[in-house]
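Reopening closed ticket. The problem is back. First fold of the pair:
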Amino acid sequence: MSISIFLFLALLFVIALLIVRALGRSAPARGEPPLPRSGPPAEQILAERYARGEIDEEEYRRRLATLRGAPPGGAPPGGAPPGGPSP
């Protein structure tokens, strides 16, 4: 009988531990800044794709405008793509 009580208490302890760990990971504590995103920013990835020739200038400008919040038909803030105008 004492073994069953010990196993029951151990089970309760494990459940409590799992709950505490799950709640600790769900959200950062108040006042703490959010964790920084890893990897390069979206504009840098877009510029690299343009430089490799994966997308053309029109596609680059359209996507850059979308990232920066400009209207799709207008020119993006910042002007020309990296490396100057295409030939």
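Second fold of the pair, where the issue appears:
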Amino acid sequence: MDETDTIQVHLYVDSAGQLLVEVDDPMPEFPGFFAALAWQPAGEGEKPRGLWCVQEAGAELAFRRWRDVNGLVMGKAVQARLAGAVPEVSA
């Protein structure tokens, strides 16, 4: 990925008020996904990683592969689901 690449971010709110944030990635695989979820900062000087920060904010993390109209895998979407992130608004 270089500075001319575009990253697409999608935001959805479901009927339960959960916010789903999806970040598209052209790589269909996520090697080390579960290791990345289990990662913890080793010491005070170590900078946190993005997925760790999102989990610390209470998000559930997952990823899914996305396909074109012919069913060909074109990449993946990394997902963060935040329960209760969107307050109910009465009309």
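Update: turned out to be a display glitch only; the data is intact. The chain has a mean pLDDT of 83. Residues 22 and 86 are 16 Å apart (CA to CA). Please close again.
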